[in-house]
Amino acid sequence: MPKLSCFNFLSLNGFYKGLREDISWHRHGSEEGEFSAENAQRDSILLFGRVTYEMMYSFWPTEQAMAAMPVVAEGMNRSEKIVFSRTLEKAEWNNTRVVNHNIYDEVRKLKETGTKDMTILGSGSIVSQLADHGLIDLYSIMLDPVAIPYGTPIFHGISKKLDLKLVNTRTFKSGVVLLNYEPLT
Questions:
Q1: Pairing mode, if any, of strands 118-121 and 164-171?
Q2: Across residues 52-65, what is the average pLDDT?
Q3: What pLDDT sits at residue 107?
Q4: Which helix (H) or strand (E) holds 111?
Q5: pTM for the full predicted model
């Protein structure tokens, strides 16, 4: 059965994004770049909310992305992508489809009948919604050694307690720590 994971950056004070969707505070050194390149080569389905999709689409298909991080750009552009949105009607990025109906049913169907693992990138509201329904199997969080004055908490809007267990960690030279959690139940 395919697994669903989420991947987010997180400030020390619990924000996954700052004001106006800002993630410039995330430290992305060469080790983090290698980590991203390794993950971009996996054959998984990428899941986004509309805002994250638009941010990703504005960068990864560009010449700038190919010059800066060619392996990651190639992986992002090649990957199958799903955007969950009630307002977006059509996705311009290749290998992307829009789902505007019940995201829980769609994810359950992909987990039950699909063949590929799925990863939510960013997309905090999608993470919170799917966490509330017990559909996420792994939470991968890159904890940055920085606090920002304003932002959106990673689990903003969850309606019930989320109990997790730490399954492994990785520390990068930049001071960023990757924390991998699974649900307790």
A1: unpaired
A2: 93
A3: 95
A4: helix 103-113
A5: 0.91
Instruction: Assign 130 to helix, strand or coil.
Output: helix
Percent of the chain predicted with pLDDT > 70: 100
**Burial category of 82 from C-beta neighbours within 10 Å (exposed 0-12, middle 13-18, buried 19 and up):** buried
Distance CA 109, CA 136 (A): 14
Q: What are phi and psi of 122, to 5 degrees?
A: 60, -130
Exposed (0-12), middle (13-18) or buried (19+): which is 60, by Cβ within 10 Å? Answer: buried
- What are the structural domain ranges in the chain? 4-183
Query: Residue 123 in 3-state DSSP?
Result: coil
CATH topology for 4-183?
Dihydrofolate Reductase, subunit A (3.40.430)
Question: Would you call 83 helix, strand, or coil by DSSP?
Answer: strand
CA distances from 11 to 23, 55, 96, 169, 183 (A): 10, 19, 29, 16, 21
